[in-house]
Amino acid sequence: MKKRIAIACDDIGFERKEALKDYLINIKGYDVVYDPVKEPKDGKNTFAKLADEMAEAIQRDKCRLGVYVCGTGIGFTMQANKHWGIRATAVTNPYSAKRARLSNNVQIIGLGMRVNGLPYHEMILDAFLDEEFDFENARENSKKNLLEAKADDNRLLNKPDFISWNMGFEEDSKE
């Protein structure tokens, strides 16, 4: 099965998003299933709407990962984290991207156009994408924290009826 991913940007991150989309498709082998910003004006003042849409695409299991490019990646990821089951963070270096995935099973990363250049963003994507969270070998503390995050989401957020997978809080069943 081809790997699926969502990507979006604001008007500032448009050119970088296009370059990273090409990288995701042609180098990393991903199918981009959500890319609503076709020209810079489509991304102007839309980060909250786009975060909501990307979160829902992940909740509906259209893809399990997403990337957003803007000035810093901060606002978008803050908005995405308001959704049940979503874990998003802005990252500025490969190590943080790798740990976001391996320690927290993060689904969405935000990248800053004003923070890093294209080659470094590609390194960040590699670190984020190349080693997925592995429940069998993950640290026990990471697995416990994911279950605590799920309990927090259940307590603090509304779980939509359309959630169609376990959102990475637990291992997928091996049926």
From TrEMBL:
The keyword Isomerase belongs to this UniProt entry's keyword annotation: yes
Biological processes per GO annotation: lactose metabolic process
Alphabetical UniProt keywords: Isomerase, Lactose metabolism
The keyword Heme is assigned to this record: no
GO molecular function terms listed in the Swiss-Prot or TrEMBL record: intramolecular oxidoreductase activity, interconverting aldoses and ketoses
Classification via InterPro entries: RpiB_LacA_LacB, RpiB_LacA_LacB_sf, SPI_LacAB/RpiB
Pfam families assigned to the protein according to its UniProt record, in alphabetical order: LacAB_rpiB
UniProt-listed Gene3D superfamilies: Sugar-phosphate isomerase, RpiB/LacA/LacB (3.40.1400.10)
Domain of life (superkingdom): Bacteria
Family membership: Belongs to the LacAB/RpiB family.
Matches recorded under PANTHER family: RIBOSE 5-PHOSPHATE ISOMERASE, RIBOSE 5-PHOSPHATE ISOMERASE-RELATED
Name assigned to this protein: RpiB/LacA/LacB family sugar-phosphate isomerase
Organism: Bombilactobacillus bombi
